[in-house]
Structure formats: C-alpha cells, structure tokens
Amino acid sequence: MLEIISGSSVKKLDADFIADRGISSHRLMENAAQAFCGWFEKKYHRNDKVGIFCGHGNNGGDGLAIGRLLWRKGYDIIVFLVGDFDRASADCRLNRELLPDKLPAITMNDEDIKHMEFDLNVVIDAVLGIGVNRPLEGNILHMITKLNGLSEVSKVAVDIPTGLPSDECLKGEAFRADVTVSFQFPKFSLMFPEHAAFVGKLHVVNIGIDRNFLSQFSENKFYLQKKDVVDRHISFSRFSHKGDFGRVLLAGGSYGSMGAIKMSAEAALRTGSGLAACLVPQCGVNIIQIALPEAQVLSAESENNLGKSYPQDSLKRFDAIGVGPGMGTNSDAVSFLKDFFTRYHGPKVIDADAINILAKEKELLNELDENCVLTPHLKEFERLVGACTNHKERLSKSMVFSKKYRCIVVLKGAHTCISFPDGRQFFNSTGNKHMATGGAGDVLTGMITSFLGQGYSVENATLCGVYQHGLAGEIASVYKKRGTIATDIVRAIPKSYLVLKID
Ligand SMILES: NC(=O)C1=CN([C@@H]2O[C@H](COP(=O)(O)OP(=O)(O)OC[C@H]3O[C@@H](n4cnc5c(N)ncnc54)[C@H](OP(=O)(O)O)[C@@H]3O)[C@@H](O)[C@H]2O)[C@H](O)CC1
Ligand SMILES: [K+]
Questions:
Q1: With a 6 A CB cut-off, is 138 part of the ligand 1 pocket?
Q2: Ligand nearest to the CA of 32
Q3: Which of 91, 281, 362, 496 has its CA 20 to 30 A from that of 50?
C-alpha cells in the first residue's frame, strides 16, 4: 500500500533513507531522474522539442539530471535556468556541472522571460518542487504564467507543479500541468479537487525507497492502486450458487427520480449480486420492472415517495441494503428512513437523499449503525458537517465524522477519499473528469452494496467498490469522452473485472 507522506516529512525521510542505505543524496536524485526518464521515453518521441525549466533547489536538480539523461538518449533538449543559481542546492549545482557542454542551457532573466518566443512541443517544469514556501512572485511567477499560456504544448511537472504547496491549498498561481510525475508517492495536495487543473493526470514513479522504509513515516494516508484491491476480492468456485453472490436491496426512487434506483440496482447486478431488488413507491413499480427485468420489485404503499408503510418483514431477506438514490427528502421519505434505521442493522450504504435527510434531521445520526457506509459527494458532505473553506478541511472533517459515528465515509470526487473509524484514509487512483455526470454516484452505491452482499468485509467492499467504479468510468469514457453517462459506467463494470483479471 503506497503511503502519502506530508512534504514536511520528506526531507527527514530522504536523509534517513540515504543514511540507512549508505548512498549519496546525488544518487537518490539520479534515481529520481532515471525513473522520470523511463516514464518519459514511453510517452514522447526523440524528435519532440523539449524545454526543461529548472529552479535552483533540488527540483531544479532533478530537471538538470533529466536534461542530461534525455539528451544522452538523443532527445532534442534545451535547459532554461530560472532562479538564483548563486544559492543553488549542492545537488542542483553538481547536476549543473554535469550538463554536457553541447547541451544548450539558457539563464533566464526577466527581460528574456518577457520577450522569448518558445518553439517547443514539450515543457518540463522543474522550477520548484515541494520546497515552495510562499506564493509565486517576480521572475518565477512571470515564467510560470508564460508557460501556462503556451498552447499546443504538452506540459509535464516534475514531482509537483511549481507553486503548489505539498500539504496546503494553493494561494496564487501555479504551473498547469497536463501530467504530474510524482516521485515515490503522490504528495498530499495532489489529491485536492481544487488542484485538479494544475496536476493534470497523476503518475507516480518509484525511485527506490521501499514500502517498509516508507511505512516508518506513515501518516495513515494511502494511495489506492490496482495491486491493493486485487487480493481483497473473494473468489467464488464453480459450485457457488445465487445465494453466495448475495441478495441486495436498493431502496429509493420517487416520482420523477426513478432512474437513480434503477441504475443502482443494475450496477449491483453487473457487480455480481445473485439477486437485486428495488424497494420503490408505487409509481416506480412498472418502471423498474420494464427497465430492469432482472430485478425484483417491492412496493411501498405510498404513491410517489417511500413512506412508513412498506414490506418491512422482507428486509431480513437481504444480505446488504443501499438506501437513498432518488428517494427525495419529504416527510414520507423521512419517516421511511427513521423506520428503516430501527429495523435493519445489516451491512448498508447510505447515499444521496438519505444523507440529505441525515443533514436535516441530525438526531438521526445517533441511529447510524457501526460500520455503515456513507457516500456523500462534496455538497452532501458539507450539508452534513457544515461549510468547509477547502478540501483539506473537508478531509479532516470526514475523518472526525468517521471516528465519531464509527462509520465509513466515502467522500466522492476526484481522488475519492475513504475514511475509516481507525483514522486511516485511502485516496482512490482511478476515475476521470468524464465521470462527473448525473447518476455516477448511484452506480457506486450499487457496487458497494453488491460487494457487501457478496460477503466482503466493509473495508474490502468499500475499497473494491470505489476503485472499480473509477476503473469502469475510465473504460466507459475511452471513446465516449465527455459524452459518457452513468449507464455507460454500469455497462463497463464487467470489463473492469477483465482488467483486474478477476472472474
Ligand atoms: N524523495 C523525494 O521525493 C526526492 C525529491 N527530490 C526533489 O527535491 C525536491 C525538493 O527540493 P527542495 O530543494 O527541498 O525544494 P525546491 O526544489 O522545491 O526549491 C526550494 C527552493 O526554492 C525557494 N523557494 C521556495 N518558495 C519559493 C517561491 N515562491 N519563489 C521562489 N523561490 C522559492 C527556497 O528558498 P528560499 O530561501 O528562497 O525560501 C528553496 O531554495 C522535490 O520536489 C523533488 O523534486 C530529490 O531529487 C530526490 C528525492
Ligand atoms: K515542479
């Protein structure tokens, strides 16, 4: 499991690692540069014109080493020196000395920055890394603003885009990367949705600091990747029957919002549930039966919203229940939820309007069962806990909430964060902007509910559900791009199993 460690600890981590392994800091920088180049070579051609913008700290040192290595491999490289090289760090200075004489290196003063026309296909940003300690200004600000304005240029940030603090929210300007190649682990602030436009795609390369070593610096924050979920899946045998794959119920829907519960139930079936049923108000019965013939339908007595009268006794048939999608928040829906909380104490996912009801009726929070899963998007979460000034605050409040109510909070968004009551937070690595579409959350509810019904522990169900939902979104959007809709994500769930090599 890849740790996310705060930037303030990285200096100590580097120093301890170097001392422990008896290597030089220059060697570690060389490892970082090699790892970057290994990634770069797979993406870019030797006839691309590559400009590497280097500052005077170790991030600049990385950039200079990258320049040397790529130049040796035959890339067309120009190095631009941006910063105060009289104050260069030791490894930056050494890498500057190691630059081959024939490799052009141009010192940029403010006039050059203003007037220079860049004829480049690729810009590599190695001006500042995690050492940034104030908003950009002067030369560096002008340089970064100019680079951000270049069009039809591929922009790559080394470790972290220049200007982004590693653990805080951005104040001022930063480099807007298409891709950020971060060393060893993603820096915490790369997980913030406010920074998505600066980070671009995130890629993490290994620079040789092993997991065991990193774990000494653990801050209980983890980056959730493919290898972390594969072993969490249950294998079923050829003798498995419908019951083994779990019976789940999705409760919700209201007049005009029946699609939400249909998508949740369909997602549960595509995730592998042996049986999925929908509990809907009367107006939804025919809709669900026609739209999703594989689902059973249970009807509440009321016409347009779930209400207090519904087939209560049938709840015990289900191995897991997802509640909330399309449910509405009127008084009928509130009385349904209150009744449901008193009757069903099995594994459950609480989403959408069920969360909105919790936000309105705060005393209901005390009825939450230990280990229930809440899946708010950012707005729903703030309705629950109050307005937050930024994502860092949201993340800290979601941890506090999870500990207080002993529940699992899935804070949805780019790098969905899953908080567990023991203080661990997992940040998802899958998914993309094309998943920001109505109904995507209903699909996630169906998937997590399905895994709970299949007998996964709540931890495994949540981590597998979030990871695979993002993966299905990536698969769905390969050709559909911004035309991707939630049912495309549902249809891509089977293929996500193929990618994970799970049958
Ligand atoms: N394990 C790893 O991840 C490794 C990372 N490496 C790389 O090292 C950088 C971090 O290097 P560091 O030297 O600590 O920091 P920076 O390169 O980011 O630069 C720090 C210098 O920048 C000055 N500074 C800070 N803020 C500003 C600003 N807004 N404007 C101008 N200058 C600024 C600061 O000096 P001051 O005295 O002026 O405050 C520093 O001199 C990491 O990101 C990786 O890329 C290693 O290569 C290997 C291991
Ligand atoms: K950088």
A1: no
A2: 1
A3: 91
| Domain 2-219: assigned CATH number | 3.40.50.10260
Residue 162 Cα to ligand 2 middle (Å): 4
Q: Where are the domains of the chain?
A: 2-219, 229-500
Question: Are residues 79 and 97 in contact, defined by beta-carbon separation less than 8 angstroms?
Answer: no
Q: Domain spanning 229-500: which superfamily?
A: Ribokinase (3.40.1190.20)
Supply the ipTM of this predicted assembly: 0.98
List of residues 6+ apart from 74 with CB closer than 8 A: 46
Q: Is the CB of 129 under 6 A from ligand 1?
A: yes
Q: Three-state SS for 78?
A: strand
Rounded to whole angstroms, the Cα distance separating 461 from 487 reads: 21
Mean pLDDT, all residues of the chain: 96
pLDDT in tens, 275-294: 999 999 999 999 999 999 99
Q: Are 233 and 271 in contact (CB under 8 A)?
A: no
**265, 450 contact by CB (below 8 A):** no
Return the SS3 of 106: strand
Q: What are phi and psi of 75, to 5 degrees?
A: -75, 150
